[in-house]
Amino acid sequence: MFRFMIPGVVALAFLFCGHIVSQERALPAIPDLPELLRQPRNEFAEVFRRYDADRESLERTYTVLTSTQRYLRLRRFHHAWLKAIQDFDPIKLSEPAQNDRQKLIETINHHIKQLNRAAASHARILPYLRFADAIADLEDARRRMQPIDAAKAAGIVNQISRQVKDAKEQLQKQSDLSRNVIMEMADIVGHLRSILRNWFNYYNGYDPLFTWWMAEP
Fold it and tell me: What pTM value is reported for the model?
């Protein structure tokens, strides 16, 4: 049996060798290094990467879109970066870096506008969603790794449940809400539901006292 396999194995080996050779032939040529090093360097690229990395880290920390802390921290972050970049003399930069500096200023201003639009939207809909702040507080406390009081947390969850019921009753009586407001509200409710579910799953089953209290009616 192995004797009959040998020709096939040899053919397969040649096939792989041919594939490797073809790959080697397809390798890109080494660039002209002196010419490459003479090209203008963009010293501002690292600044752009640092801004993006810090912004993403902050957004991962403050995940609740309706959180006041999230809005305040991001607003302070964007304005601090904007001031630092605008105060930096662009004459000292190469042309590619000057272009990236201007692009970063535009990017930060865009993020500030997005943040303000979201805040205006939340101001319209949060009066109908009184439970939003409680969910944000629970998640913010978890993110800060604060010790959880299971009995107190169960009381807050019960309060949230009552507020959700009250919100449904209020909205059923509300007939003057625009379609845009209703859609915004649906998106935020879905987001808050996901946040609360993740918060619950983080403790449930791992903290016996938490699991016991949450099982209480």
Answer: 0.74
